[in-house]
Amino acid sequence: MKQATVDLFCRIFAVLAPPPDMTISEWADEYRRLSSESSAEPGRWRTSKAPYQKEIMDAICDVSIQKVVVMSAAQIGKTDGFILNPIAL
């Protein structure tokens, strides 16, 4: 088989590889960036800035948990932490 063909298959398999096994909070800390239009503090997402979100985010992707119920105040990051981060993962 030609080297070009081998290189092509390597690139294809790299794209098709399953995503790393991460929790939502780990993924957000590693990859999530906040824009200046959508955040008062643009830049990297840091779960440590709102540590109360970590357990809820991780529960969302835990297959052993059937239901996650959140009772919270307004404007504490529910949309980013509990909707956008799980969708992106």
Strand and helix map with partners:
Blueprint: H1 3-16, H2 24-31, E1 33-34, E2 43-44, H3 52-60, H4 78-88
Antiparallel strand pairs: 1-2
Helix pairs in contact: 3-4
Description:
With 89 residues, the chain is mainly alpha-helical. The protein has four helices and two strands; from the N terminus they run ααββαα. A two-stranded antiparallel ribbon has the order 1-2. A hairpin with an 8-residue loop joins strand 1 (33-34) and strand 2. It is elongated and about 60 Å long. The model has no long low-confidence stretch (mean pLDDT 88).
Mean pLDDT: 88
User: Which strand order do you get reading across the main beta sheet?
Assistant: 1-2
CA-based gyration radius:
18 Å
Provide the succession of SSEs.
Answer: HHEEHH
* Poorly predicted sequence stretches spanning 5 or more consecutive residues: none
Instruction: Tell me how many strands there are.
Output: 2
The class by helix and strand makeup works out as mainly alpha
How much of the sequence lies in strands comes to: under 5%
Q: Biggest β-sheet, characterized?
A: 2 strands, antiparallel
Distance from N terminus to C terminus (CA atoms, Å) equals 36 Å
Task: Determine the fraction of residues in helical runs and give it as a percent range.
Answer: 40-55%
* SS field, number of helical segments: 4
The backbone outline, from C-alpha atoms, is: elongated
